[in-house]
Every structure is written in C-alpha cells, then in structure tokens.
Design goal:
single chain; 97 residues; mainly alpha; 4 helices
C-alpha cells in the first residue's frame, strides 16, 4: 500500500507584508479541538503587545470564530485550565464588565 502525500502551495498574499499573526507551531499539536484552536488563534491575533493582554468580549470571540458564545466560553475555560491563557474580567470606566 502506498502512502499518499499532500503537497500544498500557498497563494502569495500581498497583505502579509506588514500584518501577520504568529502562533507557535507546537500549539497545533497541543490543541486538537478545532474550535479551541480557532479561539486561541483569534486571541493571538488580537493580543496587544503594549498591555500584554487581549481584550475581546465573548460575543466578539464567538462572532469572529464562527462559533456560539457557549462554545467560546468552553474554549476559554479549556485554555485557562491548561494554562495556555490567563483570564480575568476587567471593568470599563463606565462600570460595565
């Protein structure tokens, strides 16, 4: 039986000159669930290097990852339990969470 190998060539993307997101290759091995990986990747994308945090809402995570808010919360819980992220709620100046 022969082993099939997939060869993939990526399209050259001009917008990649200045804006890109770095995610460690090993994270693909650690995070097997595609929904959780999608949330982790999104958090990396919106990470603010000046504050050393990402500040997305559950609603935005769910919308951008094309998942439900419940699934987003589950993904955040898993990532927190595995210590891939540190999560805390922050109050806005106007008093809303």
């Amino acid at each position: 039986m022969t082993k099939k190998i997939l060869q993939v060539r990526l399209r050259n993307y001009e917008g990649l000159k200045d804006q890109f997101t770095q995610v460690a290759n090993s994270m693909h091995d650690y995070i097997e669930d595609t929904y959780i990986f999608s949330v982790y990747f999104y958090l990396c994308r919106v990470y603010n290097r000046h504050y050393h945090y990402a500040f997305p809402s559950i609603r935005n995570i769910a919308k951008r990852c094309h998942i439900s808010e419940t699934k987003a919360k589950e993904a955040l819980k898993w990532l927190t339990e595995k210590e891939f992220i540190e999560k805390k709620q922050v109050r806005h100046k106007d008093g809303f969470k």
